[in-house]
């Protein structure tokens, strides 16, 4: 998902009387108050009818920093925090979550740069974080000696900014000059500033870009490729840049030379540098025409050359540069030459990058790997001698080594722990150093060093056990969706307890953008939920990438109901199998998963005892008009261009499908004012409507934090404590 990884890895007038930030009681009305509520109900019904008809769009809630909108959010925050933080369990959850999040026993995951290991670290004393480095020898000791290069807490205090680390890009081969990306408060828009590694300071008069969405790539120490959304004339409707420029040191950014231009209707354009072990590098631009369809351009490294379009399929994902071979996967069937070989959807292929750059024509295509029906590619990474790959088989990870000879590509598997999720943490293309991580629901993360011959793994570091797993097991089951498709899901529970009686169960899913959910260890979920007697379920529904591009594409646009049917099938199976009851079943999801849980709330309120919708999309009639929303139309549909897609979106839009005569489970909506990807208005509107209707709803808007809804570890601990307190109040308290 190229555009997704580039993104991953888009002002209104007050609405008169409906703009009043009146907060109504959300508890169900008693008989004694029925007459009092009759008038409110009439007003609320009128509001709901106006929303459903489209005559009321609650535009005042789309003013991110609007006075009325913030007043409404603040009033809801006070009410929600009053109900949740006064519960004694909140503080217990907060303390236990923060202990995990700030623990110095966590694995310091690293990247390799110039033979050194680099890490960004946050803990109790460094809430903004430390950018630091160490040697390989020191890293594999019990107490590595870290050299702190930048103290982000000190910088935040000095500059009075809530800096959130967004990464660094350093120029090879000496890595002395870097572009650091810092976000104020956690938004996607971030500043980029040049850093001198020798002086350990920002370069006075150096490259500096104000807060914007975009990216940079080094050409040489005095020249950058930049793509910024600073100029509205060079910004797409999704809020990303569509122009790439060459910026020379010492010249104003306004005088940067045009290198490549896409179109305002694109999702965005991003430059990147691909470098081989011998120092040969290529400059590419990704022109994302939609979220999933991109055109790739080879850019010149000087002012005289012209961009060369690479004749690759539009649904393609570059994976790695291994020697001279560009490794890429395709998300659609592809026949490069008429009458020639056709490569299947999901295949991983390679070609000679030097030949492609020299001629602009496609060289010979080689097949690296073709996944089976229940397989998917989890990622590739190259060392100097080996191409490593994670291949997922029925949602369980495996590590493979690919090598190329005159006979083509061969592969062999490296033994990894059973029933775990495997990921490549870092791989150094200048040496044969690589680390991979393995984890499972009950198995803490362990970091392994790959041997130089890529034949075995050696444990390097491990995370402690954060919760008691006695009696707990992990099972993989399947539910039958409405169209007969088998939907796998993992259940983590105590079978003795589950077989004795149904219990509180939390169901989690995502279902979109070809994002796979694999087994993972969560110390906070284990402590706050499993240890308290809860059962946890993760559903691998369609829309994700668990079984390759076809699994994702089965639920695009007007076929999206399949995704919702998949989750409903899993929920029904949990009830039918006696794992839980509808009153004890909660569902949680974020972003696209927040839309998913919003749909569960409106389509099957009878199936759940509690719903959590985090940083969600909920107004599907206007999603494409807010922030980055236009970039997601290839996933959801084009409501202004396709009547069929508009009608379907209207049929599933949670905001437009609330029935005032229907009973709904308790709903907890969470968002962030600083989220400049999914607009906070989605959650605000749903909160305003459900509050007006007197439904059982809590709303919390973090004033910082961006799309993660948390700008630092303490805010993350607060969010987790709020969520699990809410779940216990609604799924556990009624058991006694």
Automatic annotation (TrEMBL):
One Pfam family per UniProt: Peptidase_S9_N
Ranges annotated as biased composition (Basic and acidic residues): 32-41
Segments forming domain Peptidase S9 prolyl oligopeptidase catalytic: 528-731
SUPFAM superfamilies from the UniProt entry: alpha/beta-Hydrolases (SSF53474), Peptidase/esterase 'gauge' domain (SSF50993)
Region called Disordered, residue ranges: 17-41
Keyword annotations of the record: Hydrolase, Protease, Serine protease
Highest taxon, organism lineage: Bacteria
Domain Peptidase S9A N-terminal: 59-458
InterPro entries hit by this protein: AB_hydrolase_fold, Pept_S9A_N, Peptidase_S9_cat, Peptidase_S9A, Prolyl_oligopep/macrocyclase
Protein name as annotated: Peptidase
Organism lineage string: Bacteria, Pseudomonadati, Pseudomonadota, Alphaproteobacteria, Maricaulales
């Amino acid at each position: 998902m190229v555009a997704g990884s580039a993104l991953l890895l888009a002002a209104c007038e007050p609405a008169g009387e409906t703009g009043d930030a009146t907060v109504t009681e959300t508890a169900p009305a008693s008989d004694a108050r029925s007459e009092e509520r009759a008038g409110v109900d009439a007003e609320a019904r009128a509001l709901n009818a106006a929303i459903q008809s489209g005559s009321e769009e609650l535009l005042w809630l789309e003013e991110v920093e609007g006075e009325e909108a913030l007043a409404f959010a603040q009033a809801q925050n006070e009410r929600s925090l009053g109900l949740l933080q006064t519960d004694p369990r909140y503080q217990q959850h907060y303390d236990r979550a923060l202990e995990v999040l700030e623990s110095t026993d966590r694995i310091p995951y690293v990247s390799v740069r110039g033979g050194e290991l680099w890490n960004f670290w946050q803990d109790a004393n460094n809430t903004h974080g430390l950018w630091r480095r160490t040697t390989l020898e020191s890293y594999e000791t019990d107490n590595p000696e870290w050299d702190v290069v930048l103290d982000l807490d000190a910088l935040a205090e000095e500059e009075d900014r809530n800096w959130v680390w967004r990464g660094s890009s350093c120029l090879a081969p000496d890595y002395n000059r870097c572009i650091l990306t810092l976000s104020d408060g956690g938004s996607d828009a971030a500043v980029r500033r040049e850093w001198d590694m020798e002086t350990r300071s920002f370069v006075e008069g150096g490259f500096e870009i104000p807060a914007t969405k975009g990216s940079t790539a080094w050409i040489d120490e005095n020249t950058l490729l930049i793509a910024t959304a600073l100029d509205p004339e060079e910004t797409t409707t999704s809020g990303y840049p569509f122009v790439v420029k060459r910026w020379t040191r010492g010249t104003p950014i306004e005088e940067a030379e045009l290198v490549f231009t896409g179109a305002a209707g694109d999702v965005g354009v991003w430059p990147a540098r691909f470098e081989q072990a011998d120092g040969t590098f290529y400059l590419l631009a990704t022109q994302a025409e939609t979220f999933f369809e991109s055109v790739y351009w080879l850019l010149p490294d000087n002012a005289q050359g012209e961009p060369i379009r690479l004749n690759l399929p539009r649904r393609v994902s570059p994976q790695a540069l291994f020697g001279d071979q560009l490794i890429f996967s395709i998300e659609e069937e592809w026949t490069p030459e008429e009458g020639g070989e056709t490569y299947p959807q999901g295949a991983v292929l390679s070609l000679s990058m030097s030949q492609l750059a020299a001629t602009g024509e496609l060289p010979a295509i080689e097949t690296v790997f073709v996944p089976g029906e229940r397989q998917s590619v989890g990622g590739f990474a190259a060392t100097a001698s080996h191409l490593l790959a994670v291949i997922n088989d029925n949602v369980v990870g495996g590590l493979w080594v690919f090598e190329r000879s005159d006979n083509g590509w061969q592969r062999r598997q490296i033994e990894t722990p059973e029933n775990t999720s495997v990921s490549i943490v870092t791989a150094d293309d200048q040496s044969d150093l690589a680390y991979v991580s393995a984890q499972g629901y009950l198995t803490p993360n362990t970091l392994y060093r790959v041997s130089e011959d890529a034949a075995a793994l050696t444990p390097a570091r491990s995370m402690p056990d954060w919760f008691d797993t006695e009696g707990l097991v992990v099972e993989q089951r399947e539910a039958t969706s409405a169209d007969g498709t088998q939907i796998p899901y993992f259940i983590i529970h105590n079978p003795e307890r589950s077989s004795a009686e149904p219990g509180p169960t939390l169901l989690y899913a995502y279902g979109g953008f070809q994002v796979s959910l694999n087994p993972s260890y969560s110390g906070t979920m284990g402590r706050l939920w499993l240890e308290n007697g809860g059962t946890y379920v993760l559903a691998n529904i369609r829309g994700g990438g668990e079984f390759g591009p076809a699994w994702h594409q089965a639920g695009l646009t007007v076929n999206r109901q399949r995704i919702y049917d998949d989750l409903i099938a899993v929920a029904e199976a949990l009830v039918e199998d006696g794992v839980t009851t509808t009153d004890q079943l909660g569902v949680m999801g974020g972003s696209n998963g927040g839309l998913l849980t919003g749909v569960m709330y409106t389509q099957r309120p009878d199936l759940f005892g509690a719903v959590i919708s985090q940083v969600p999309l909920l107004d599907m009639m206007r999603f494409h008009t807010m922030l980055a929303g236009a970039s997601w139309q290839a996933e959801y549909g084009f409501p202004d261009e396709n009547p069929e897609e508009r009608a379907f979106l209207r049929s599933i839009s949670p905001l437009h499908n609330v029935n005032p005569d229907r009973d709904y489970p308790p709903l907890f909506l969470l968002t962030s004012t600083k989220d400049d990807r999914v607009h906070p208005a989605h959650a605000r509107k749903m909160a305003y409507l459900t509050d007006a209707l007197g439904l059982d709803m809590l709303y919390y808007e973090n004033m910082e934090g961006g799309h993660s809804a948390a700008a630092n570890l303490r805010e993350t601990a607060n969010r987790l404590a709020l969520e699990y307190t809410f779940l216990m109040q609604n799924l556990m308290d009624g058991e006694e």
